[in-house]
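PorV/PorQ family protein
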Amino acid sequence: MRKLSLFLTFTLIFGYQEFFTSLAGFEQITGNKILPSYFSNFTFGNPLGIERRNVALSYLSYLAGTHLGGLEFCEDKSKTQYGIYLHYFNSGNIKKTDEYGEEYGDYLYSSISLVPLFAYKLEKAKIGLETRLIYSFCDTLYSFGIGGSLMGMAEIDIFRVGGGIKNLGFILKPFYQSRSIQKPEVSVEFSADLTKPLNLSESEGVNINLGIAYSDFGISFHTGTEIKIKNLLIFRLGYNSFKEGFLTGFSFGLEIKKEPIIFSYGFLPYKELGNAHIFNLAFNI
């Protein structure tokens, strides 16, 4: 629990939750349908990899009462793709402690952000830009910031490489008064993947993925399998070495697609901390 508290404190103190970026429309933001890691730091690849106009609702039930979600609109214009995402985050109740470590009440951290997204295709490559306006409040304090992330990917046959620079921005109004504009810590991430499709028929098939990723947290390995049945059901199983413990590295996903509606669900175990559940409902219009 101490690890979770330190992680939340580090993430929230600047009013940024960059690792939640890919919550809405996981497949649309990352273009990686193999690994249902969903909101993981190591979800790179195709920024805004949508194929048509799309509206999506997302909700994630995370650890220790944390939950987040949002509403997204995306549009595909052949060479260019764009979208906008309204995102909220709620930490759930967090215990207050004094200098002696004694608990004396609860508080929560919440935020709401508006996230415009843009991507441009360059034959086998794509570059994408995510910008962000975020308002956060914690107990009686509040902050306001602007920021963005620059991401890109390239594909050659079954090989894909991607990278991103995240948390480019400024905290205009920090939680605590400061004489200077603060900057959140910039993070740089890279990944490389091999994805082998095995088409059993026109409506059925299997995709197998193997990859490696690097971020400020170190190097991780991931693998996954996606099974498509009758253009209706997709089952996903993924593994990411980033999460501690062998069994907690696994994640599971299910997608049901019946045009124009797509429903997807992901399950991620976190050892003694609990489990995370993510839901996404999309409408192709």
